[in-house]
Queue: 2 jobs
Job 1
Amino acid sequence: MTKLDILVIAAHPDDAELGCSGTIAAHVAKGYKVGIVDLTHGEMGTRGTPEIRLRESDEAAQILGLSARENMGFKDIFFKDDDAHQLELIKIIRKYRPEIVLANAITDRHPDHGKGASLASNACFMSGLRKIETEVNGMEQEAWRPKFVYHYIQNNYIEPDFIVDISSYWDTKVASILAFKSQFFDPESEEPASFISSPEFLPFIESRARELGHRIMTKYGEGFTVERYIGVDDLFDFR
């Protein structure tokens, strides 16, 4: 079992890459252990198959230098923030014992993103309750609650509570996104067009990153919202 510093929880394969892969790459470069848990295979998406998306997820994991990546196999679009799904996610949180969890946007165009955000947030809290008993491979798990849960920003604009400078890791972010070849613009693809396969979609992702970077006087940025106030003990920690 690998203890992670940061666990990213994503409703679909490629959510993490689109929303926070620059932040992932920046922290991997600093020596932190980062992993991703995809809740579904994205099987209801217009393009690709679960098998293809798993292969693409593995390729993106290699690009980002992840310490772990798993897929929960929940039903795309039909999963719920209920006790059955919470208990399964609690097992993952207790398995990896992350200090920080990065989760889907709290509200977004795709309903799975808001559901994924709620599921992740509730499971993180519940994972710290000792009276919720879980076991994996016959071994009882200890309670564990991450210190922080932050939500990355996805399609819909949400005013960020803080922005991470990803300027030095923009190329890594782009490479991790493009690992999902089945999902994005390909003039030779014969699959149906989708919302994210248009030639305008990836330039939109760059524009969003440039806008957020501009807000903190850097080239590229990724924004996050918080569930509670962030405290500091040194005013010079801000940039």
Job 2
Amino acid sequence: MEVALLTVGDELLAGDTENTNASWLGRQLTEAGASVTRVLTVPDDEAVIADAVAQYHDAFDAVIVTGGIGGTPDDITKAAVARAFGRDLVVPDDVRAHLEAKAERFADDNPELVDRYDMDLDLDAWASVPEGGQALLTDESFAAGCVIDRVYVLPGIPEELKAMYETVADEFDGDRTTETIHTPAPEGALVTHITAAREQFAVAVGSYPRKDDTPGRVKITGDDPATVADAAAWLRERIEVVDIE
């Protein structure tokens, strides 16, 4: 299963916010056996988002889009996804009712905050989804995410993203398996063995340099667990290895 990640936000491109969502999703999907083969960050621009969604939808098994699904003027991701499919945004009655009840509970639980600030909540924007899409709702997120034809639209706030991803996590799987070897050896000392392992076992082998006090990593990835295990064993016999708890 090949997955593309599309992260949305001017703040990501400007470096104001670190893009932890992409790395977190990459780990989750890889552990599930899927292959993340594209990661793209785009601005809060409806046309740019729509174009990227349309291209990735045609090219990959699934697309995950994160960010820009709230109720402020720059939250245009759901409108852009609707545009990519040539559909309108709609407001399902049950989703709006759910969010209206949630807003009322918030007001009851936070009277001082509501009294202090003029809360302008556009419930229609929070509840909207592309026509034909399935709304995704969680306790952590006020805005509704959605799924439409293998495109998953999730929040940008990390805790909200993680909670909503868990509602669809079972839909991502694959045959990819990975094994990691830790080594104190510099990358230059690994080239010959990595090249030979790739050729002999037909697996992907990547090396990643040590960082701070942690050793370097050699990562073996393939579609057959037995072949990956054989390649890892072969490499362990030829490079210096350290155990990491």
